[in-house]
Structure formats: C-alpha cells, structure tokens
Specification:
Elements (H helix, E strand, L loop, with lengths): L4 E10 L5 E9 L4 E5 L28 H15 L7 H12 L9 H18 L4 H6 L8 E8 L12 E5 L6 H21 L19 H14 L9 E5 L6 E2 L2 E4 L5 E3 L1 H14 L2 E5 L7 H11 L4 E4 L7 H10 L4 E4 L1 H4 L2 H14 L2 E5 L9 H9 L3 E3 L6 H17 L18
Helix pairs in contact: 1-3, 2-3, 5-6, 7-8, 9-11, 12-13
Bound molecules: 2-phosphoglycolic acid (PGA) and zinc ion.
Zinc ion binds next to loops.
C-alpha cells in the first residue's frame, strides 16, 4: 500500500535562538519518510495559532515542547495512520478536527504544522517530485525576489532602533543567483560602512546588523549608501523595504518610539513619516507600519501610499482568511505576509494565498525570527509563485539555507525559471 501514512514521530530540537522547537518525521507505508522543523516568532500577532510550550520552569525556562511532541507521538500519529499522504487537504482537515479548536490550542500549532509539512515532504518524495513541483504543479517556476533584512531593531535586537527590520530588495537582478549576489555584496558594504563609523557589527536574530543608531531614519540612509558603495543603483538595482513591526511599540493608542528617544506619534504622524520616507528613499514595501489593532490607521496608510508602494499586513492578518477578508473589505493594505505557523497547516496557508490572489493582492512568503535549517519555505515560495520571499540577511545558516535551496531550484529549472520585479510601481529615489 503506497501513499498511506504509517506513522508520525516528533522530537524536541533547538531553533536558531537556542529555544526548543519540534522536528516531525512522517513515514509512509512504502517506507518513504519526510521530515520538517517548525519555526517560532518573537514579534507574534495576538491572533496567531498557539505554539504549545510546556511551561515547566525547570526545563528551558518553560519553553520546552515535550507535550507538543507527545501530542504527535501519542495522539496524532495513530489517528492519521492509513490516510492518503497525497491528499493534503484531507489530512489537514483531519488535523483540524482532531484538535477541535480554532487556534490549535489543544494539540499545539507547532505539533500540527510539523505533521502537515512533513506529510507534504514525504508525499513529494514518494511521487518523485521536488517539493515545489509537488505543491505548486509542473508550472511552478517563479523564483522569488528576496527581501533581505540587513539592519535589525525592535524585538529582534538589543539596540536603540524602534523599527524591527530594514531590508534590501535586489529587484533589478536578472535572476535569483544574481539577486543573492547583489544582496550579499550590499550586506558586506554595509558592514564596512558601519565599521568605519565606529558602529558595532554584531548581528540580530535574522542575521542583520544591530548597531546603536542615532535615529530610525539613519538606517535608511545607511542602506542607500551601502547599495551605492556596492556598485548598484538604489531603487533600480536594489530597493529598500521596512517592517517596523509597529504592534511592538503601540502603547495606549500611540506609537512610542522610545528606544531611539523620538517620543510618541499618532497614527497620522506615522503615516506622514512613511510618506516622507517614500519620497526620500527607494522604498518599495512597508510591512506592519501600523499596529495590528489599528485597522483605521492601516486603511489611512494604504490610502496615502498604496497606489505607490506595497503595504503589507503581518500581525494584523496572521495568515488567517478571516482577517485577510476584513483587510480586503476595508482596504487596509494591498499585500499580506504569509507565515505557515501563524495559521497552522499547509492547506490553510494555501487558502490564505488563494484569497490574496483573488483580491489581486501581493503576498510574501516569510520565515520567523526563530528558524531552523529547514528550507521548506524556499520550495513553498516557488510553489505559490508570488515572486517574493522574506528570509533574513545573507548570514546565519538558518537564513542562508533558504537562499541556498532557491539557488538549487533555479539550477534545476534551468531556462524555465522566471525571475521578475513583482512591484507594480518602480521605486522612486526622490533625489
Ligand atoms: P517574528 O518576526 O518572526 O519575530 O514575528 C518576523 C516579522 O515580524 O515579520
Ligand atoms: Zn512582520
């Protein structure tokens, strides 16, 4: 009997921050196996699926995942045995029913997602296909433009920068391999600039540098300088994207830029700040410029900049069709950040992407700040064909693993591979 799930096993492993997470191994009746590791966020949205942690203060400060592992081994494995591994939708529906809650708070979204991804891997292997072809069909061939987070602040670094991520976007490259080179060269030129100015070059959770800058805006200036110094044209070859992760500094209805000492701002003032930056810098995308509960602020932000640049919602949508639909109805953004572990299964993630497509919105496949060596999202990005991936700096192996996998995919696709600028409007440098 091929194609049937035989069993699933989970173990507790470490993520890139040294915190426990799950690795799940699924074996099919044919003997084929598939494995997957589950990532973990730090600036999590309030409505994310629940990451089950043991809470036993004697182990990993309460962060152990032995209960989630046991849920796979003792509860899930026997219930999914015999199911067709090639019917992902049915498997994921079964997992939802087994848990019985909306947010996987019973068995843990970490347990559920690990099984969901590992089954997809095993089924791909059994069918003799690469994961991106298995999940995206034989026409899947769009390599994503990477958004590479090279300056870290907020919850991802212990420095003076309020905004979480400043990214470089090598959208003018002819193919993925060249885009990666543009990005890595810019990253190294940024390191040189930081050293020359006496700034530290220690890196944050996603591999970006985390210096004590004097303002949030200085980061944009540094990126333009680094792009130029690497020999690229800002906006044309390499553009900029930011993820302020504004929920993390939203205090009593205002945006508190206290780390950089820049005081409190209203939503309107934040929108004005982004308008100004969009004029001054080659910004093509702003993610979570406003907080997840500030739907009104998001809509105002999109009304002011949505025709020019990509406005992405992360915490506000948590990859959940219920919230994405609300965003579409209220014009809260024009793009969505997609994270498998925010919603819990591969099928629900694909449903969220289908909704984006239906609305004509962009979507960006994303890593988490706590990652592993698993490069599932590289294949997933090509399978979904959205043309964008956000997976950190070209540094730290858990980030580079995704980029290196994309190099392999591009090689495998050969002349069939497509790499193109996904941004409707070219970046304006305004200079
Ligand atoms: P997280 O950060 O994984 O800590 O949530 C990534 C992001 O906000 O996009
Ligand atoms: Zn984000």
């Amino acid at each position: 009997m091929t194609g049937k799930i035989a069993h699933a096993r989970a173990i507790e492993i470490l993520d890139s921050r040294g915190n426990p997470t799950l690795k799940v191994y699924v074996t099919l009746s044919s003997g084929v196996t598939g494995a997957a590791c589950v990532p973990s966020g730090a600036s999590t949205g309030e409505n994310e699926a629940v990451e089950l942690r043991d809470g036993d203060a004697h182990r990993y400060g309460g962060k152990g995942v032995l209960i989630a592992a046991e849920n796979v081994n003792a509860n899930i494995s026997s219930k999914i045995a015999g199911l067709d591994a090639h019917d992902q939708a049915k498997l994921d529906q079964m997992l939802r029913e087994l848990d019985g809650t909306d947010n996987y708070s019973k068995l843990g979204a970490n347990a559920i997602l690990g099984v969901s991804m590992a089954v997809a891997r095993a089924a791909a292997t059994e069918s003799g296909q690469s994961l991106y072809h298995y999940l995206g069909g034989q026409n899947a061939r769009v390599l994503p433009v990477p958004m590479m987070n090279v300056l870290n602040g907020g919850k991802h670094a212990a420095n003076s920068v309020d905004f979480q991520e400043y990214m470089i976007v090598p959208l003018g490259a002819p193919n993925f391999a060249e885009a990666l080179r543009y990005g890595a060269e810019t990253y190294h030129s940024l390191a040189g600039i930081l050293r020359n100015r006496g700034y530290g070059t220690a890196v944050g959770d996603e591999g970006g540098f985390a210096p004590n800058l004097i303002s949030n805006e200085e980061a944009c200036e540094l990126l333009v300088e680094a792009i130029t110094q690497a020999g690229y044209e800002p906006g044309t070859d390499v553009a900029i994207a930011i993820d302020p992760a504004a929920s993390s500094f939203y205090v009593k209805g205002e945006y508190d830029l206290n780390r950089s000492g820049q005081g409190r701002r209203t939503a309107e003032e934040m929108c004005q700040l982004y308008e100004l930056w969009t004029k001054k810098y080659p910004l093509v995308s702003i993610e979570d410029g406003l907080a997840e509960m500030d739907w009104k602020g998001f809509a105002a932000h999109t009304a002011s900049l949505g025709a020019k640049i990509q406005i992405v919602g992360d915490d506000i949508y948590v990859t959940n069709t219920k919230f994405i639909q609300r965003g579409i109805d209220t014009k809260a953004s024009n793009a969505v950040l997609i994270k498998l572990n925010q919603i819990g299964t591969v099928s629900q993630t694909i449903e969220a992407i289908a909704l984006c497509r239906k609305a004509g919105w962009n979507f960006v496949i994303s890593h988490r700040s706590g990652e592993t060596e698993d490069a599932f999202i590289a294949d997933f990005a090509v399978a979904m064909g959205g043309g964008q991936i956000k997976t950190g700096a070209p540094c730290r192996s858990e980030r580079v693993a995704k980029y290196n996998r994309l190099l392999e995919i591009e090689l495998e696709l050969g002349s069939k591979a497509i790499f193109k600028n996904p941004f409707k409007v070219p970046a304006t440098t305004g200079r």
